[in-house]
Design a protein that fits this description.
The protein has 116 residues and is mostly helical. It has one domain. Helix content is 83%, strand content 0%. The chain has 6 helices and no strands. α1 crosses α6 and α2 packs antiparallel against α3. The longest helix is centred in the first third of the chain and has 24 residues. The protein is elongated and about 60 Å long. The two termini are 25 Å apart. The model has no long low-confidence stretch (mean pLDDT 83).
């Protein structure tokens, strides 16, 4: 479990040391804000029912935007070989990267108070 947490911390650091997480969070907030306020002004009703029904559809696009770069970035920077030769199993690598992406998606959903 220690190796998984180390990989998770490293991935979280790489998310927030590059503009990836900030861009994804900003775009998500803009899109979800637009969908909410367009519903408020078109229907003249301030309800969150339509917002919560469309938010999972928004996550369909933003979850792959965060997760597709996980192993590709390792290969691009040349650290994939180093990671594979370390005394970690494939499952620890996959779970560490999964937990980091899940943490960013949780932060994303909590920034707009959307339940997962």
């Amino acid at each position: 479990m220690g190796n998984t947490l180390t990989i998770t911390r490293r991935e979280l650091g790489s998310y927030f040391n590059s503009p990836v997480a900030y861009i994804v969070i900003t775009v998500f907030l803009l899109v979800s804000g637009y969908l909410f306020f367009s519903q408020v002004f078109l229907v003249n009703e301030a309800t969150l029912r339509d917002f919560f029904s469309t938010t999972p559809l928004i996550f369909i696009f933003f979850a792959p935007a965060l997760t597709m770069r996980l192993l590709a970035e390792e290969k691009r920077t040349g650290t994939l070989e180093l990671l594979i030769t370390m005394p970690v199993t494939d499952w620890q690598v996959v779970l560490g990267k999964f937990f980091a992406a899940l943490a960013v998606l949780t932060l994303l959903s909590q920034s707009s108070n959307v339940p997962l």
